[in-house]
Amino acid sequence: MPVVREIALKKDESLLVTWMAEPARYARLQTAAANYSKYVFALNIPHIVSGIEYTQVEIKFDDVPYYATNYEVTGISATGARRFFRGIGRSFWGGRTIKGLLVWELPQFGAGYDIVDWGGIAVPDDRPA
Fold first, then answer.
1. What would the pLDDT profile of 10-60 be if each residue is shown by its tens digit?
2. What strands, in cross-sheet order, belong to the sheet with 52-61?
3. Interacting residues of 9 by C-beta distance below 8 A, sequence separation 6+
4. Nearest to residue 3, comparing CAs of 44, 40, 33?
5. Phi, psi of 79 (to 5 degrees)
6. Does residue 79 surpass a pLDDT of 60?
7. Measured CA distances, 126 to 7, 9, 66 (Å)
8. Rg (CA), the chain
9. Segment holding 112, helix H or strand E
10. H or E segment at 128?
């Protein structure tokens, strides 16, 4: 579950502040291609496969989104080693937006990661990918 910060006034006008802890495994968007075709997330806890720690995950559309036929999920280690994890075809993602796909994909990757920070980068959420 992503970080939730709730601030509200109760009837007696006292301030109610609720903090929820960040999830153990989370991702922060580090970079995005100007044409929305590639997103790189930093992982809070590295995803370990065959003894290699992947500290980043790259989600890359095969073309400019809105026309892409699939996207690929690749892990990137601290040394730059890359490992392809899977490809997802357009017929599978239905009417999800780019942002919706990214929010859906990160929990599917490895042991499950929630996105807690978009890094101030505008990610399209207004039309299907």
1. 555 555 555 556 567 889 999 999 888 899 999 988 999 899 999 999 999
2. 82-89, 70-77, 52-61, 38-49, 26-32, 114-117
3. 15, 16
4. 44
5. -90, 0
6. yes
7. 27, 32, 11
8. 17
9. none
10. none
Closest of 58, 69, 67 to residue 33, by C-alpha: 58
Specify the pLDDT at position 128: 74
Could you tell me the two tokens for 83?
């490992």
* pLDDT tens track for 80-113: 999 999 998 888 888 888 899 999 998 888 778 8
Q: Where are the beta strands (DSSP E) in the chain?
A: 5-9, 15-19, 26-32, 38-49, 52-61, 70-77, 82-89, 114-117
In single-letter form, the type of residue at position 47 comes to H
Say what the pTM is: 0.78
Residues in the chain: 129
The CA angle 47-115-126, to the nearest 5 degrees, is 135
